[in-house]
Amino acid sequence: MEVIITLQERLWLRGQALDLQSAGPRSRGICIHIRCVDTSNVLMGVGGAGGGGGRAARALRLLLLLVLALAAVEYLFGSILDASPFRTYLYTPAYNTTQSTIKNIDRTPGWPKKLPIIAAARKNPKVSNTTQFRNVTFNTTVSTNSSTKAPFIANMTRQNITVESSTPFLITKIMEGIKNLVTTEGLSPRINEPTMPLCEEMPPDLGPITVNKTEIELDDIATKYPEVHRGGRYAPPNCTARHKVAIIVPYRDRQQHLAIFLNHMHPFLMKQQIEYGIFIVEQDGNTDFNRAKLMNVGFMESQKQKAGGWQCFIFHDIDLLPLDQRNLYSCPRQPRHMSASIDKLNFRLPYEEIFGGVSAMTLEQFTKVNGFSNKYWGWGGEDDDMFYRLKKMNYHIARYKMSIARYAMLDHKKSAPNPKRYQLLSQTSKTFQKDGLSTLEYDLVDVVQHHLYTHVIANIDEHS
Fold first, then answer.
1. Which of 118, 221, 237, 370 could form a disulfide with 436 if both were Cys (CB 3.0 to 4.6 A apart)?
2. Is residue 155 part of a domain?
3. 341 neighbors 407 (Cβ within 8 angstroms)
């Protein structure tokens, strides 16, 4: 690029140089940000015949070119040279560039110090329809299922924060990448982590089995199954289970049955290659037995014991033992009545609407019908009530064929029937949305993880 100086400009520059000479030596040097030039010599030589004047003109042209080049570089690459001396000289920021500034967001911090659900539970030890589920993704708001008071899923997401700073562009991108890696590690599986293949849909060598009804002590089987983890939890060691199942067993005063049940169920379930946990839910106090309400408690408490929660729930009487391993303890698309064929009932189905004994429901199915009713104190009615709930929500009952859905029943004393069961059943279709998980109240007495089962003790008495 060539800089052309006209004759008029030369005369003007010569006049300025004379003024500078008369002003004295202190004003001779004009500092141009890059270097200082003695303008008296340069300008006096402009238009002169001497070699010094030509050199001065060329120096001036070079300086102008250098300034223009720096301006072009700054214009084109300013986002990269964010802290260049040229920008520092020309640009004065409106805020302190050493501190990050948050733009266009609320003042609410992105991560709450305590989750509201957990904080509330710690303040109130009494469990009143409050649960703390582990299937949590990350969001600052808690979404609650409208049909129940219990918060079934707590979704949490970090707020997006736009940060403006003086850090160079490339370094900023690298730091953001490191931050994303750190914050997501632990929330999702590592990409390079080896995964086991899925277990077979129908595990091999399944078939009919026998039952040992001989009474045994819990201490005799406490260490019998080392592959079972504490709390009665098991997962297949060589494949990834297709089903994650919580076995919910309502219980009171059946210690002679408990050891027989555990001794039979653990090898039966392990053979099916499912991931499972056994939860014995005991009713505290002296009021009439309420099987259905205990199963609601078991559902709520079992979800707290597993990260991500269980997908399938088998509600199981303690005196029923399966006789065929092909009776898979999983949850299909429709609710399944498992114990269709019982030895003491001559392996016949008593009536088509029965849903008692052993039944299987998914998380979605169980919450959609609001769980079991809490009002059935004493024997009978609660399983038929569940049938009507499922029918009202357009589900139908699935069953295995009678040669597979076979169970042996342990001897036990029959309980007194609930005299109000027929009256309650007549109101199910109108009241089920207001009676169940949404109105469940109980006092959690204790949760103990034994080797072969998790023992949940709850007081479910109604509060006046």
1. 370
2. no
3. yes
Tell me the per-residue pLDDT of 393-445, one tens digit each, with 9 for 90 and over.
999 999 999 999 999 999 988 777 888 889 999 989 888 999 999 999 999 99
**SS3 for the chain, per residue?**
CCCCCCHHHHHHHHHHHHHHHHHCHHHCEEEECCEEEEHHHHHHHCCCCCHHHHHHHHHHHHHHHHHHHHHHHHHHHCCCCCCCHHHHHHCCCCCCCCCCEEECCCCCCCCCCCCHHHHHHHHCCCCCCCCCCCCCCEECCCCCCCCCCCCCCCCEECCCCEEECCCCHHHHHHHHHHHHHHHHECCECCCCCCCCCECCCCCCCCCECCCCCCCCCHHHHCCCCCCCECCCEECCCCCECCCEEEEEEEECCCHHHHHHHHHHHHHHHHHCCCEEEEEEEEEECCCCCCHHHHHHHHHHHHHHCCCCCCCEEEEECCCEEECECCCCCCCCCCCEECCCEEHHHCCCCCCCCCCCCEEEEEHHHHHHCCCCCCCCCCECCHHHHHHHHHHHCCCCCECCCCCCCEEEECCCCCCCECCCHHHHHCCHHHHHHHCCHHHCCCEEEEEEECCCCEEEEEECCCCC
Mean of pLDDT over the chain: 75
Q: How many domains are there within the chain?
A: 1
Give me the CATH number covering residue 223.
3.90.550.10
Phi, psi values for residue 337, rounded to 5°: -90, 110
φ, ψ of residue 406 to 5 degrees: the values are -100, 140
Domain of residue 341: give its range: 206-412+420-459
Q: Is residue 52 part of a domain?
A: no
The closest alpha carbon to 435, from 363, 365, 370, 368, belongs to: 370
pLDDT at 299 over 80: yes
Segment 33-56 shows an average pLDDT of 50
Farthest CA pair distance, the chain = 129
Looking at the DSSP bridge assignments, the partners of residue 362 are 312
Q: CA 331, CA 310: separation in Å to the nearest integer? A: 11
How far apart are alpha carbons 10 and 45 in whole angstroms? 10
**Domain-located, residue 406:** yes
Residue 247's DSSP bridge partners are 278, 314
Q: Which residue has the tokens 């850090």?
A: 167
Dihedral pair phi/psi, residue 247, rounded to 5°: -95, 110
Q: 43 pLDDT exceeds 70?
A: no
Whether the pLDDT of residue 42 is over 50: the answer is: no
Q: Which one is predicted more confidently, 30 or 139?
A: 30
Both tokens of 416, joined, read 């007194």
